[in-house]
């Protein structure tokens, strides 16, 4: 029974892409729309959770009954996640964070010239790696892995490296999965070795299945186990 089974649970969700400015008019970003993360936030809210949603820029409307923190860059998302993490029991990190940002942000629009333009990119911090150093053992940390090949191998490697309790892996090259569609095809891997392969489902149903998994193991999972 999913009714109110997340009452008294505080859930922090991230959603969407980040925007990495190059100059006042140009950005580096990716194809994420935030649909998966918004679906997780709404599902958790409907099951009684207190939900904070850290969302990148996008067209999606603000969900009612959810505390929304809007961010643009990966650095802003990191600050919002680390500042709010201590007050939450569960972190579900569905955002597609830009791995790189332009090394220099130009204060005025860069003029085009005839020749090519080389832009230096620097690495953004990996927010989940930082979370893994600050998390409490009683917190449940969930990552997402969008892959185009070797989905299982890459997902399990991320699960271990980022010290996650679960990773939700999807092959974004498959029709009906990944960016900008309303459905997803995922496998939920647990640090305990479990693998739950789900059929094609709406993102809302994927969110509910993920919350079912978290509910059934909360208290039994965590860095200390
Ligand atoms: O390594 P990769 O980006 O594929 O891992 C995906 C997971 O890591 C997602 O949950 C994403 O939100 C998170 N991530 C992050 N900070 C980054 C890059 C990814 O928290 N800089």
From TrEMBL:
Cofactor(s) recorded in Swiss-Prot or TrEMBL: Mg(2+); FMN
Gene Ontology CC entries for this record: phosphopantothenoylcysteine decarboxylase complex
Record domain DNA/pantothenate metabolism flavoprotein C-terminal: where: 7-215
Listed GO biological process terms: coenzyme A biosynthetic process; pantothenate catabolic process
Known catalytic reactions: (R)-4'-phosphopantothenate + L-cysteine + CTP = N-[(R)-4-phosphopantothenoyl]-L-cysteine + CMP + diphosphate + H(+); N-[(R)-4-phosphopantothenoyl]-L-cysteine + H(+) = (R)-4'-phosphopantetheine + CO2
The protein's annotated pathway: Cofactor biosynthesis; coenzyme A biosynthesis; CoA from (R)-pantothenate: step 2/5; Cofactor biosynthesis; coenzyme A biosynthesis; CoA from (R)-pantothenate: step 3/5
Molecular function per GO: FMN binding; metal ion binding; phosphopantothenate--cysteine ligase activity; phosphopantothenoylcysteine decarboxylase activity
Taxonomic superkingdom: Bacteria
Cofactor: how and how many bound: Binds 1 FMN per subunit.
Region (Phosphopantothenate--cysteine ligase): 11-225
UniProt binding sites for CTP: 99, 109, 125-128, 144, 158, 162
Keywords: Decarboxylase, Flavoprotein, FMN, Ligase, Lyase, Magnesium, Metal-binding, Multifunctional enzyme
Family assignment from sequence similarity: In the C-terminal section; belongs to the PPC synthetase family.
UniProt function note: Catalyzes two sequential steps in the biosynthesis of coenzyme A. In the first step cysteine is conjugated to 4'-phosphopantothenate to form 4-phosphopantothenoylcysteine. In the second step the latter compound is decarboxylated to form 4'-phosphopantotheine. Catalyzes two steps in the biosynthesis of coenzyme A. In the first step cysteine is conjugated to 4'-phosphopantothenate to form 4-phosphopantothenoylcysteine, in the latter compound is decarboxylated to form 4'-phosphopantotheine.
Protein name: Coenzyme A biosynthesis bifunctional protein CoaBC
Residue range from the parent sequence: 179 to 403 of 403
């Amino acid at each position: 029974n999913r009714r109110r089974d997340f009452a008294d649970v505080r859930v922090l969700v991230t959603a969407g892409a980040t925007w990495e400015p190059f100059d006042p008019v140009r950005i580096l970003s990716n194809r994420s729309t935030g649909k998966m993360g918004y679906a997780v936030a709404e599902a958790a809210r409907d099951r009684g959770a207190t939900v904070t949603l850290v969302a990148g820029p996008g067209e999606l409307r603000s969900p009612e009954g959810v505390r929304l923190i809007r961010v643009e860059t990966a650095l802003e998302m990191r600050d919002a996640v680390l500042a709010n993490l201590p007050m939450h029991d569960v972190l579900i990190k569905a955002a597609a964070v830009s791995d790189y940002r332009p090394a220099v942000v130009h204060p005025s629009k860069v003029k085009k010239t005839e020749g090519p333009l080389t832009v230096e990119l620097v690495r953004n911090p990996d927010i989940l790696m930082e979370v893994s150093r600050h998390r409490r053992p009683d917190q449940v940390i969930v990552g997402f892995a969008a892959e185009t090949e070797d989905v299982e191998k890459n997902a399990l490697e991320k699960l271990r490296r980022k010290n996650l309790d679960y990773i939700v892996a999807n092959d974004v090259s498959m029709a009906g999965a990944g960016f900008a569609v309303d459905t997803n095809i995922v496998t939920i891997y647990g640090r305990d070795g479990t693998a739950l392969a789900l059929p094609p489902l709406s993102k809302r149903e994927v969110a509910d299945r993920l919350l079912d998994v978290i509910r059934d193991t909360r208290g039994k999972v965590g860095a200390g186990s």
